Amino acid sequence: MIYTRAYESPLGLLDLESDGVALTRIRFPGEKRGPDPEAVRRDDAEPFAAAVAQLDAYFAGELAVFDLPLAPGGTAFQRRVWDLLVEIPRGETISYAELARRVGNPAACRAVGAANGRNPLAIVVPCHRVVASDGALTGYAGGVAVKKGLLELEKRAPRR
After folding, report:
1. Which of 19-28, 33-42, 71-80, 85-94 is the least confident region?
2. Domains along the chain with CATH numbers
3. Would you place residue 159 in the very low, low, confident or very high pLDDT band (cuts 50, 70, 90)?
4. Helix and strand tally (H, E) in the chain?
């Protein structure tokens, strides 16, 4: 069973999805990948209360690292890339080339970029912290303006 609830963020209304145990997706308004048609609206499903509290703290500049049960669906390679994303400190960015190097295949920039783009847990798994080698902000599920806003929010937040 997939559960969903809305979360009013400074970025607009986000849809959170859960399998009743772990967070499985965060969807931006207008995102190409639509909601699961079988999803059931249930605001009290696990781990929505913790996710909302931590997202509130993140947007207030008070949270650097999320501590939530996560269950993103993806290939082994995608999950490896996503695991590396959570190691990028708040307020910092790395390039796709650097992420490919960290994944163990410096020639895999495009594959790393594709995996980054399929991250179902934006914000919590911070794919917005990956930029082009020249520092340019490239595509983001929530739009480049949202990516820029998240990076600016993180740079303004005090380091803990």
Report:
1. 33-42
2. 3-59 (3.30.160), 76-156 (1.10.10.10)
3. low
4. 5, 6
Q: What stretches of the chain show up as alpha helix (H) in DSSP?
A: 48-59, 76-85, 96-103, 109-117, 144-156
**Eight-state DSSP code of residue 124:** T
The single residue of 127, 146, 150, 151 carrying the catalytic annotation is: 127
The pLDDT assigned to 93 comes to 96
| Residue among 143, 131, 152, 145 at smallest CA distance from 28 | 143
d(CA 38, CA 2): 7
Catalytic status, residue 127: yes
Cβ–Cβ < 8 Å for 56, 19? no
